């Protein structure tokens, strides 16, 4: 059986590890994010892609 101090230490360590995991999950691959001003503008001569909507819609 763990003492109170051991349990608190374990909770603190787990909280730090969860924080690191959440931070990694947020920032993983963020270097590929599209920043303002870096987006390519579509060619106005090419029409927008169309797709067939099946089922219920809100329109």
Structural account:
With 59 residues, this protein is an all-alpha fold. Helix content is 41%, strand content 0%. The chain has one helix and no strands. The longest helix has 24 residues. The N and C termini lie far apart (61 Å).
How would the blueprint of this fold be written?
Elements: H1 4-27
Extract low-pLDDT stretches. Answer: none
Counted beta strands? 0
Helix content percent band: 40-55%
Give the radius of gyration: 24 Å
Alpha plus pi helix count: 1
Structural class: mainly alpha
| Residue-averaged pLDDT | 85
List keywords for this structure.
59 residues; single chain; 0% strand; mainly alpha; elongated; 1 helix
Short précis:
This protein is mostly helical and 59 residues long. The chain contains one helix and no strands. The longest helix is centred in the N-terminal third of the chain and has 24 residues, at 4-27.
């Amino acid at each position: 059986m763990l003492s109170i101090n051991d349990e608190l230490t374990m909770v603190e360590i787990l909280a730090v590890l969860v924080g690191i995991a959440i931070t990694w999950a947020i920032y993983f691959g963020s270097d590929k994010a599209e920043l303002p001003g870096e987006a390519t503008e579509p060619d106005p001569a090419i029409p927008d892609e169309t797709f067939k909507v099946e089922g219920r819609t809100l329109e």
